[in-house]
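Second opinion, please. Pick holes in both lines of this record:
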Amino acid sequence: MKRTDKIRITATPKHVPDQALRGAKYVFTYTITITNNSPETVQLMRRHWYIKDGVFGEREVEGEGVIGQQPTLEPGETFEYQSWCPVSQDYGSMRGYFTFTELRTSKMIRAEIDTFLLMPEEALN
């Protein structure tokens, strides 16, 4: 599997103060935007996340697609979705990668997702 920088993935996290989950100090939503800057049509096949959280340490979450979908992106096309993550301490972080298939060549490619913080706004002051 080759790595690529031709698929751009950005994450925008947001603290959701009115949400509560047992065992979690904070709940965050995050918006993922995927842009296919390659000349090939690609399909997102799998996700792989590394989530750091004080009490739980680092945990891995992986599986098929995202939010029940395996979207196909033509060259220049963008796909966006929202998901969520609880954290048990004052902050956490996420990083990972998505695995795509180039539909014409059947090559598997890996697109990295940079680390992003899950931290409530009041902790930044």
User: Anything to note?
Assistant: The mean pLDDT is 92. The first strand starts at residue 2 and ends at 4. The radius of gyration is 16 Å. The chain is about 0% helix and 60% strand.
